[in-house]
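Morning. Coffee machine broken again, so started the prediction first thing and wrote up yesterday's gels while waiting. Chain of 645 residues, entered below exactly as on the submission form.
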Amino acid sequence: MKRFKKYIFPLAAALLVTVLVGLGVIKRMDRWMQDWLFQRPGVTSGDIVIIGIDEKAFDLLGPYNTWDRNIVASVLEVLAEDPDKKPAVTAVDILYVGESFEQADQRLAEAARDLGNVITACMAEFGEKIVWENGRAVSMSSSAIVGYAEPFESLRDCTTQGHINAMSDVDGVMRHGLLYVDPDGTPDSRVYSMACETARTYLAQKGQELKLPKVSAGGHFYIPYTARPGGYYDDVSVAGVLSGEVPADYWAGKIVLIGPYAPALQDAYFTPIDKGTQMYGVEIQANVIQSLLENKGKTEASDLPQLILLFLICAAVMILFLRTKVSRGGALCAGLILLSALFTFILYKAGFVTHPLWMPFAVLILYILSLAAHYIRAAKERQALALEKERIEAELSLAVRIQESALPKEFPPFPDRKEFDIFASMTPAKEVGGDFYDFFLIDDDHLGLVIADVSGKGVPAALFMMVSMALLRHVAMNEVYEKSPSKVLQAVNRQICSRNPEGMFVTAWLGILEISTGKLMASNAGHEYPALKQAGESFELFKDRHGLVLGGIDMTRYREYEMQLEPGAKLFVYTDGVAEATNARDQLYGTDRMIEALRSGEEGTPEEILDTVKNDVQVFVGSAPQFDDLTMLCLHYHGTEKSRE
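Came back before lunch.
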């Protein structure tokens, strides 16, 4: 039971985001992401042309409401003038319901018959209707066909009908087409869309069969658009056709669509390929026809399987988030979002329309929940540590005193060695800090020099300082590391990283001086630049190349470099408490002032040089509280008797 409890939160979080997605909280955003990701312009088919009832036609023939059926009949007659250059199919996207003037009606029907392969428009009217069974009302259908309009009889008999019903999604964007309607409520009366009948007739002339797209229970299918508004329109107007300006080669053997192409006719819709500009109905027909001809139909995956899969993936992702460090959780979250977007796009190319935002939304919410869980867990751990800290506070105060006494305090430290002189000091701030210095003889000819700064202040830093100081001295004294500062830092870094739950780090500078030659090998782990004064010269910053701090990344490699100390040279190393000392105006002391102070006292002993810098810092800081520990070390290299000759 206890083992199962740790999975309750991940499963509950996965269920929560799945329910949110299922309820449609991101439905609108998801649709728009589908549009942006899937609906991309392609190459329009040269076999589809549009003859528009546009403003040019109104200028020539008058307002559309004054037209009789003779005008479109005239257009069909022009298309049929050359028997060798007739269109393959002509679709008239105009609804001719009922009879008007006998002569005009007859002419239109005869023109359609002579042209051949004409598709005319019909339309179903949808509404609420009671469903009866065995003489009893059993339900109410809200999408029943309550009316049906078709061409007048003579035109209907000589043409093929295709419905022109168009319904936008709830956000006003037309993403779906209606493949068929059943006027009598049975498949026997089924009428396919104008685009479907047009594509079917065109392929039949080529000896090919139309493959119908997969549809929903209501007969809807997803439209993969090829062109934006205007993509199929070559500015060919009914007026141009009637005036003889358009050559017959333009429509010969092609699919010709005749329909409204003017705002006044109110036959335009927003489409997913361009939500800023409406597309005329006749152009939507062209897009659907091309998708049918090229068999680009897409299947919209059902929501239920996607929701089940989403829940399972979310449960696994949440478990992963909770087991992953916060520092890596963000990268994992971003990677999963990109991977889900790529997978969605691949599925679309394979013919399936899925929800592109479901997984990114779920992953983001789960990541936020995992952050909260990590924070609560960390807060509980910190609270437990605080209680534990109170219990052992008295014991830690003793550890602090031990830490202070661990720094070398006797000077000169090696009175029998005349080759060098050394002095170091640490002036702590209000709290016991983590700065430390150290120097030790590795053997008779090698002197180790260390200055370091532990992140943070107070007792934790002091304890971390003790561990770091002990590690540095122990590893440097080990012959395995060949008196190489870089190898020493690498070994110490690995040990600190392996046991560093609080994520503390140490900046450190380590030098190993070959006393007999003055050759100093050094390596820098994110510490301040040393300052060097050769004999007869002045102090200058030695801008060495920094490596990463100790305790940062366990596989860090460090570089080492060589400094040749001539007899009389002086080396000054320090922690950031010197350069970052701050006065009451929040100004930093800085390394430039430090170098000036060093130069002013450079002829003194190491102890005098440190006193000069310390006094200069105190004058600069004035009444402001001490910002950080002031830790400094100065080496004066005299050289051997032989090297001084």
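The longest strand covers residues 118-133. Going to sketch it on the whiteboard this afternoon.
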